[in-house]
What we know:
The chain has helices at residues 2-41, 61-76, 108-117, 127-138, 168-177, 192-198, 203-206, 220-228, and strands spanning 47-54, 85-92, 96-100, 154-160, 180-187, 207-210. Strand 2 and strand 3 form a beta hairpin. The chain is built from eight helices and six strands.
Amino acid sequence: xEKMISCFLLLVGVFLIAARERRVPxxxxxxxxxxxxxxxxxxxxxxxxxxxxxxxxxxxxYDFEKVKEFILxxxxxxxxxxxxxxxxxxxxxxxxxxEFSLKTFxxxxxxxxxxxxxxxxxxxxxxxxxxxxxxxxxFSETEGARPLSQNVPRVIMIVTDGRxxxxxAEIAAKARNSGILIFAIGVGRVDMNTLxxxxxxPYEDHVFLVANFSQIETLTSVFQNKLCGKAVN
Length: 233
């Protein structure tokens, strides 16, 4: 009797293992299909996008890694090619550091590698200075921005967790008036009025606030719809 029970349990174990092995390829296949659907949704979307990342001392190393993951998730669904979507990345603290410009990378893999290598500055919070840099430098034709005559949307996506230490409202207004669409993402105890002074209107479409850096990934699907849909034209 004991031998029969042992054999039965052995057969059950073999069945469960086989079932698990069958599910794994299906899961991987589903992930690949999801990625293809995302890329197809954003296929041929012309866009000049610049990320501006708060790298002040209030951002802990773990939080900074979460921001990098968020950027990598956004890159997954963009059709990154020189004649389609171009991406630049700026981080800032007391100073501004241009990680890469709109003309730096033609391949998504190289861009992802640069994002992973990015090290945070751990200094102040000069948000206005970073936006000014984007307007004057990052979106210049010499740095890879396409001429205004081509009507390629120019978009800033800024992530910040603190109060700016410089006059950001006036600088952000000039950026918006120049035709740049600004998405403002606040993390933690960021003043909503400050975020609204940065982001484009209507605020419900362009200004976002999450409780912590772990929640920022919940915005990925939101921006997939906004960047690749009709919201950016």
